[in-house]
Amino acid sequence: MRHLLDTQTLSRTDALRILDVAEDMADTQRREVKKLPTLRGKTVVNLFFEDSTRTRISFEAAAKRLSADVINFSAKGSSVSKGESLQDTAQTLQAMGADAVVIRHGASGAPRTLATSGWITAGVVNAGDGTHEHPTQALLDAFTIRKRAYGDDSRGRDLAGLTVTIVGDILHSRVARSNVWLLHALGARVTLVGPPTLIPQDVSAWPATIRYDLDAAIADGPDALMMLRIQLERMNAAYFPTEREYARSWGLDAARLRALPADSIVMHPGPMNRGLEISAAAADSPRSTVLEQVTNGVSVRMAALYLLLSGERAEAEKEDAR
User: Fold this and answer.
1) Could you say which of 51, 110, 130, 226 would form a disulfide bridge with 267 (CB–CB 3.0 to 4.6 Å)?
2) Is 1 inside a domain boundary?
3) What are the Cα distances from residue 308, in Å, to 19, 81, 286, 297?
4) pLDDT of 118 higher than 70
5) Average pLDDT over residues 137-163
6) If you average pLDDT over residues 230-238, what whole number do you get?
7) Helix/strand/coil (H/E/C) assignment for every residue in 262-304
């Protein structure tokens, strides 16, 4: 695996390999000594042009637990805020000897530009680009669903036969896009639910069913119900009348939580707007996987960095040189 830029082009085989390696990484994180020597001598740069706490810390923890050296680069207060281009920043990182760059950027396609431009030889991991994709979030979500469904018998298994309903601000959600492609590749059936104004105009190519009635979708009994954050910071128009109206029609309140089948799980990529898209009762219920997703995120990102920077990457570079 040379780069991890999206899930739309990620094969089922590669997705399962990442999930299975993440299982191994999760096993190591239950030991008293969690650190592995696997990436000793490698340098991982967290290059964040957008604010993030959860994702950046998760990648930092993953790299450090693999014994890599970590450099955290924030656009705020850096030369980027003075007008430095992505190319100049990349070439600076190349000169520093970065082996992997984890990039979050407000522009859709920035990670692919970085990976294919020739500015840098490091492996590139997309940590979220605009409203495009967030592949490691989808992978940790799939990992969480698989773990809840199959427990210790998860390795090598896909999500065939499982149903996942994703609810909320689909229009602005890179998490939703990455999940649609990955869950489909793994065999799950995906339903997207939200107000018409928050569903992209053309989703005919997406392998998902579109619905607008959350109560009807819940009545179908999904195995996993994923609530998305309303991204108010990306909205410059009135996509719904009021927050109260949104919560009434598309929020997961106590009544809707009770209507879910007993074995359905409740997911949220975080951060949560409690009382808007999800109630405190749902967020804190035993069927909620919110904190599991955070824990699993470290294991999945350890797996991604390991596959990028271990021997497989060296073999890929040999192939490219031939």
Assistant:
1) 226
2) no
3) 14, 30, 35, 16
4) yes
5) 97
6) 65
7) CCCEEECCCCCCECCCECHHHHCCCCECHHHHHHHHHHHHHHH
